[in-house]
Amino acid sequence: MKAKVVRKIRRPSKELIKKFRKIPSSIISDCLNRYYGMNAEIRPIFQGIRLCGPALTIQSMAGNNMMSHLALTFAEQGDVLVIDGRGYLGNAVWGGVQTVYATQRGVAGLVLDGAIRDVEVMRKMRFPVFCKGITPAGPHKGWTDSINVPIQCGGIPVHPGDLIVGDDDGVAVVPIEHIKEIYRESVERMKKEKLWLKEIGKGKSSLDAVGLRKMLDKMDIEYVDK
Fold it and tell me: Sorting pLDDT into bands at 50, 70 and 90, what band is 142?
């Protein structure tokens, strides 16, 4: 079967992307029923990191980076490359050369279920990267893979054009078909959390501020004070 390379995809509006830059990944995951948050193995490479943009997806053979080089040639400004590197850590599939070119192209960042190298370059350039690991071993280039097809990354399905939001907590994915709805719910959720913190500031417990007392009272718990 031939590899498939899709060069034109649907992306969220720039206005919505800008609005989501103020929404934490944890809030997004909450509004998606605690789902669509990538697993903890997909970690940021520096603190104070922030990433928000549409996914340009790459299905990669383990240890192969040929297709990410190709994807960079038609990536649009603000895109986030999301690579399913099959979780392989034996060879890096992203490095300093790609980072420099990605920055020239205006790529917003990288999310990779696999390994990178030349991490010092990315940290110095403050190029946002979330990945599974770091290794000095370089990539292979002997296989063709697909670009802008549905993939998984960090245990979560990612489709081309889905919104990727990353911060110090990790990465959340907003399916493009639900993006307006999730934005509205995220704003309401943030308002609710502000009220919880206000109540805690007045002396309430987190249990009561969040409204968990009634639920707890229904649970079969034996309290022992000795």
Answer: confident
Go through 124-137 and write b for each residue having 16 or more CB atoms within 10 A of its CB, e for each that does not: eeebbbbbbbbeee
In the structure, what pLDDT confidence band is assigned to residue 226 with cuts at 50, 70 and 90?
confident
Is this model's pTM higher than 0.85 or not? yes
158, 59 in Cβ contact below 8 A?
no
User: CA-CA distances (angstroms) from residue 106 to 5, 50, 146, 162, 198?
Assistant: 20, 15, 22, 18, 40
Other Cβ atoms within 10 Å of 184 Cβ, number: 10
- pLDDT tens digits, one per residue of 178-198: 999 999 999 999 999 999 999
Report the pLDDT value the prediction gives residue 5, as an integer from 0 to 100. Answer: 95
Q: For the chain, how far is it from start to end, CA to CA, in angstroms?
A: 69
